[in-house]
């Protein structure tokens, strides 16, 4: 059959590890083609680097879940490792496929690689088609009145809220092929950590895969969405959806989330504004993709070039104390330990720990971004860079550099019950709320009664808040003078 209606199609899964509402798969279904599902483990991914350890843990389980969903439909997920172009060409020979369909990616190294692959396949007479499988709308969809891209979130959000309508969901294929084609065992890729296996806490918190994503959404819609606006900043409560790693790996489409939330709104959800507030966060993810698409170097370089002459400190010791959750600021240490144990950290706490690193410790945001890249199950090239640059002050629509988060009052305000710090820093468990976020201010008797010995059972602050704040402000003044 001709190119417009291929008899058989390779569907190349990438950041879209699901069957439902998947535009590339649905196009193959529509063409009535035999479908060969393929996953390729490439040496480098988004931003041209290797996946981090926590993402590999997730990928391992997510692929196994996809493999099982495909085999239930009579097919086999063909897994191979290495150079994507070569593997696709080999597979075309082995399967006789006439076309390759995939979902688009938006960081520059991936755009370049995909363009090369598309060209090579087309030169061979193979139909190569890409689709939007991961975003509500692609980064070029909305333009400002002057024709540029949105650099400020609020007007971008207004444009999406006023215009976006989720299309009808796309059907999952009922049948797959792939049987008889060789592939690697996912187990042989060593994605799951060993020596040591640090993932126990991950197992307790997460169910990677399409079913897990659907359940998370359902649980969120059945409860927390009602109080989202109020509770989304409270790490001591289960106030957010926990959907970020599922979205990162594409186990659920953002359009599915949008439709489900709009369904609740249209059925008269009383807490409508709370639901809109949640949707606006989904659009923050989209906005991060707008930024990185239009600023391809933003993953590693300052969006605001003024920061190129910032005199960051260099201190391996301070970086390690931050990474290990030993800064002496309880809310920061709780966050860093939550990250290490579960691969995730609450958004409010991400901002607090990022502020401490870039302001009090005056370390370059890229050092923090690297650590998050390795340890987050939702490590995302766009959202991670945007989140770090926003907090550091070097990003688009960023929090100004001179706004230095106070880790004590942030803890008191957002971990009101103290449950978050008590859970992740159990050595402080017996401290009364009044002193929980600033143990060094407690009297000797209080500390003794709580079994806390500063500098021994729990660290003294890595730098006094006032001193750290002043040093950051001085660095800001110097930066301004250099412009
Ligand atoms: P919810 O509050 O339930 O929000 C729903 C969804 O909206 C999330 O799953 C996520 O996909 C999206 N979202 C929410 N907040 C943001 C945001 N500020 N920016 C972009 N998308 C958002 N998010 C990532 O997905 N990957 C990252 O690598 C990442 N790195 C970050 C680094 C820093 C320094 C900061 C401050 C934020 C970062 N975020 C990142 C954004 C945010 O912290 C997480 O998306 C959020 O905590 C995920 O939890 P949730 O799914 O319960 O969020």
From TrEMBL:
It comes from the Bacteria. GO terms for molecular function: deoxyribodipyrimidine photo-lyase activity; DNA binding; FAD binding. GO terms for biological process: photoreactive repair; response to light stimulus. Residues 7-136 form the Photolyase/cryptochrome alpha/beta domain. FAD binds at residues 228, 240-244, 278, 378-380. It is an enzyme of class 4 (lyase). It catalyses: cyclobutadipyrimidine (in DNA) = 2 pyrimidine residues (in DNA). Transmembrane segments: none annotated. Gene3D superfamilies: 1.25.40.80, DNA Cyclobutane Dipyrimidine Photolyase, subunit A, domain 3, HUPs. InterPro entries: Crypto/Photolyase_FAD-like_sf (IPR036134), Crypto/Photolyase_N_sf (IPR036155), Cryptochr/Photolyase_FAD-bd (IPR005101), Cryptochrome/DNA_photolyase_1 (IPR002081), DNA_photolyase_1_CS_C (IPR018394), DNA_photolyase_N (IPR006050), Rossmann-like_a/b/a_fold (IPR014729). Keywords: Chromophore, FAD, Flavoprotein, Lyase. Binds 1 FAD per subunit. SUPFAM superfamilies: Cryptochrome/photolyase FAD-binding domain, Cryptochrome/photolyase, N-terminal domain. Its EC number is 4.1.99.3. The keyword Flavoprotein applies. The record marks 312, 365, 388 as: Electron transfer via tryptophanyl radical. The keyword Transmembrane helix does not apply. Its cofactor is (6R)-5,10-methylene-5,6,7,8-tetrahydrofolate; FAD. Belongs to the DNA photolyase family. This is Deoxyribodipyrimidine photo-lyase.
């Amino acid at each position: 059959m001709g190119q417009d209606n291929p008899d058989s199609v390779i569907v190349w899964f990438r950041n879209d590890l699901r069957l439902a509402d998947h535009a590339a798969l649905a196009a193959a279904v529509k063409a009535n083609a035999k479908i060969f599902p393929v996953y390729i483990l490439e040496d480098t991914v988004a931003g041209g680097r290797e996946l981090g350890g926590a993402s590999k843990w997730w990928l391992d389980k997510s692929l196994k879940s996809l493999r099982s969903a495909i085999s239930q439909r009579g097919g086999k997920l063909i897994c191979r490792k290495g150079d994507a172009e070569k593997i696709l060409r080999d597979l075309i020979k082995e399967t006789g496929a006439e076309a390759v369909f995939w979902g688009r990616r938006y960081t520059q190294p991936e755009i370049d690689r995909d363009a090369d692959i598309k060209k090579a396949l087309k030169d061979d007479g193979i139909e190569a088609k890409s689709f939007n499988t991961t975003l509500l709308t692609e980064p070029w969809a909305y333009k400002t009145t002057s024709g540029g891209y949105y650099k400020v979130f609020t007007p971008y959000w207004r444009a999406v809220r006023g215009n976006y309508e989720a299309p009808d969901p796309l059907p999952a294929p009922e049948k797959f092929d792939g049987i008889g084609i060789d592939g690697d065992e996912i187990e042989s890729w060593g994605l799951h950590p060993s020596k040591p296996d640090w993932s126990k806490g991950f197992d307790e918190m997460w169910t990677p895969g399409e079913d897990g994503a659907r359940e998370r959404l359902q649980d969120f819609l059945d409860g927390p969405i009602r109080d989202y606006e109020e509770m989304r900043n409270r790490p001591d409560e289960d106030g957010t959806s926990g959907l970020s790693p599922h979205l990162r790996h594409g186990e659920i489409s953002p359009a599915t989330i949008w439709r489900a939330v709009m369904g609740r709104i249209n059925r008269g959800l009383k807490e409508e504004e709370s639901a809109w507030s949640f949707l606006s966060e989904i659009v923050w993810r989209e906005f991060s993709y707008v930024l990185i698409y239009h600023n391809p170097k933003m993953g590693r370089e300052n969006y605001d070039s003024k920061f190129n002459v910032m005199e960051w400190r260099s201190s391996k010791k301070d970086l390690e104390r931050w990474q290990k959750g030993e800064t002496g600021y309880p809310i920061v240490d709780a966050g860093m330990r939550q990250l290490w144990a579960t691969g995730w950290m609450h958004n409010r706490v991400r901002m607090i720990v990022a502020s401490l690193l870039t302001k009090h410790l005056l370390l370059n945001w890229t050092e923090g971004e690297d650590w998050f890249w390795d340890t987050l199950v939702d490590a995302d090239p766009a959202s991670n860079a945007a989140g770090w640059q926003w907090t550091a002050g070097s990003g688009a629509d960023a929090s100004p550099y001179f706004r230095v988060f106070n880790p004590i009052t942030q803890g008191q305000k957002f971990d009101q019950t103290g449950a978050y710090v008590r859970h992740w820093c159990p050595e402080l468990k017996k401290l009364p709320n009044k002193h929980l976020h600033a143990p060094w201010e407690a009297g000797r008797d209080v500390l003794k009664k709580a079994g806390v010995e500063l500098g021994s059972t729990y660290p003294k602050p890595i730098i006094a808040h006032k001193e750290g704040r002043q040093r950051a402000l001085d660095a800001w003044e110097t930066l301004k003078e250099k412009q």
